Amino acid sequence: MNNLVRILKSCETMGNATTICSDRTGTLTQNVMTVVTGTFFGTKIFDDKNNSANETRLALFANNLSNDEKSQLIDAITTNSTAFESDNGLLSFARSIGMGPLSEERSNATIIQLVPFDSRRKCMGVVQRLSNGTYRLNVKGASEILLGHCTSMCSSASTRSMTSEDREALEKLVDLYAKQSLRTIALITKGFEQWPPAGCEDENDRSQADFDAVLKEMIFTGIVGIQDPLRPGVPEAVQKCHMAGVSCRMVTGDNVVTARAIATDCGIYTDGIVMEGPVFRILSDAQMAETLPRLQVLARSSPEEKRILVTKLRELGEVVAVIGDGTNDGPALKAADIGFSMGISGTEVAKEASAIILMDDNFTSVLTALMWGRAVNDAVRKFLQFQITVNITAVIIASVSALASSDMRPVLTAVQLLWINLIMDSLAALALASDPPTEEILDRKPLKRSAPLISITMWKQDIGQAILQLIVTFTMYYGAPAWLGIPSDGLEIRSLVFATYVNLQISNMLNNRRLDNKFNVFQGVFKNYYFVVVFLAMIGCQVMIMSVGGRAFSIQRITDRDRDWGISIGIGSLSLPFGVLIRLVPDWLFEKIAKVVGKPVVLVYRPLHRWSGKMGRKIKGLRRKSKESKESEKVEEVAEEEARVEEEGRRTDVEKGRA
């Protein structure tokens, strides 16, 4: 199933999930970063994504670069790369233009200062000392942000000032790449005569420069478009989630245009809202409540903004599942109702914060968790639906028949009730809980947090079946002796009533395989071997009881009585056609009838419940006071005993002194 469940209750919670907030990299996409297009030094362009005859391929682009241009690009990439997925794509690009072994390239460079990636700046940098004694700052990061720090452009021959037309053309280029679902990374640089520059020293370390102070008036080197293909089956899985009433949201660090394009390819973005994290963060509570239902993509989001998104969704009553793989996803994973982490590419922090680990790092495995979660919830509700009917009828039949009998003898004995309530119910629970999930389970909306465990449809089935069983049982017990010509209140009629009542439960177990108003209760029954085995075992045990269990169960053998077998099986099978009739009754009509009929019961029950609650609290208070008084008496007795012992010791010491 590719789901490792760390917290067992999360599987049940996932069945009621109403929204999924997913990271992009490695979950919706394959996490295989490849540089497919780029523009450097103003005019040198390559494109391996679009298959038109006019595009320059990467191999030809590499041949057109001068040695100085290759050296500058290779230094900017090799010295400023980490373990991020996008860096792997850039390193592959650097190898394509002539980079040697990475360890050798890095050992040949003299690094003066490293500036790690910062989610606020959306960039990282490195300062390299060149062979001529000068210094070069190489910065890599979000293209639309770094473009704002540049005032010049690096061309093949020299450096020139960036005009408004140049800036507009680069902005259009970033937008063009982003619309092709490409992550855009910009490379910018700047030379310095000394490091740190005068007036830009870091207050905490004078040998290092304040990065914010030097990140201005930079020179634009180039921009690349990095492709990360979608995982197979993701659009189909997202569509199934929407059919199941689960809304999907993409939370990513990409810019707005790239995020929208990828979300559109996945089927996540339709006509909803796309927003950047910093903008989302400053919304008021009222604005968030208005925005969140239509928010489909959150771009340029930080860990804190992811956590805020999850928290606000839960405050609106949503059951939130979060999918993440990095350390920065930890707060959101912890804040969610169900957290999913990646088993292959996920960090240990993400795995510890999650409830379920996706062993294949695939979004489609979340759909599996959703199906099994709903199957678990359905198993509990199926058994409850079966159990309530049995308990209602067993209690009423035993009570009424005992009160109506002159010797206070119920029609169902204690041993028979034990068989019905302990053995049969346990077997039914195993049978009803073993139905595996199917695609059909995704055709309905998830239950809300406030939804009752027993729905109106379930109550309709419970009450309807209980009425049928009560009518059948009492009619047979009090009317059948005259019709069949057998003694009333004898072993034969009691045996017939017991056999019929048990057969009603067995057929009703089939009826309870469905929680909706659809008629086909046999759908998929023969694919569930556990159900078939348990069902046949219950029938076999009942036949054995009716054949050889006379003394233990206080019944008469009906082995040779074809008439009694036919009556018990035929009437006992009425639960199935009657279940169809019950399903034909509209839920709204049953709800209205239940409110009218049940109102007197409620009027009596509520005061009685409040009175019994008050009496229970008073009794508990009296018991607590009695217990406290007994404890205080024991404390006083111990204190008196200690005082007596101390006084006797003092007297003994005085007598020894006199002697």
Automatic annotation (TrEMBL):
Residues 628-637, 646-659 have a biased composition (Basic and acidic residues). Keywords: ATP-binding, Calcium, Calcium transport, Ion transport, Magnesium, Membrane, Metal-binding, Nucleotide-binding, Translocase, Transmembrane, Transmembrane helix, Transport. Residues 618-659 are annotated as: Disordered. Residues 411-584 form the Cation-transporting P-type ATPase C-terminal domain. It comes from the Eukaryota. The keyword Ion transport applies. The chain crosses the membrane at residues 384-404, 466-486, 530-553, 565-585. It catalyses: Ca(2+)(in) + ATP + H2O = Ca(2+)(out) + ADP + phosphate + H(+). InterPro entries: ATPase_P-typ_cation-transptr_C, ATPase_P-typ_cyto_dom_N, ATPase_P-typ_TM_dom_sf, HAD-like_sf, HAD_sf, P-type_ATPase_IIB, P_typ_ATPase. One of its GO terms (biological process) is intracellular calcium ion homeostasis. It is a multi-pass membrane protein. It is an enzyme of class 7 (translocase). Residues 618-627 have a biased composition (Basic residues). One of its GO terms (cellular component) is plasma membrane. It is found in: Membrane. Its EC number is 7.2.2.10. PANTHER family: CALCIUM-TRANSPORTING ATPASE, CATION TRANSPORTING ATPASE. Belongs to the cation transport ATPase (P-type) (TC 3.A.3) family. This is Calcium-transporting ATPase. The lineage of its organism: Eukaryota, Fungi, Dikarya, Ascomycota, Pezizomycotina.
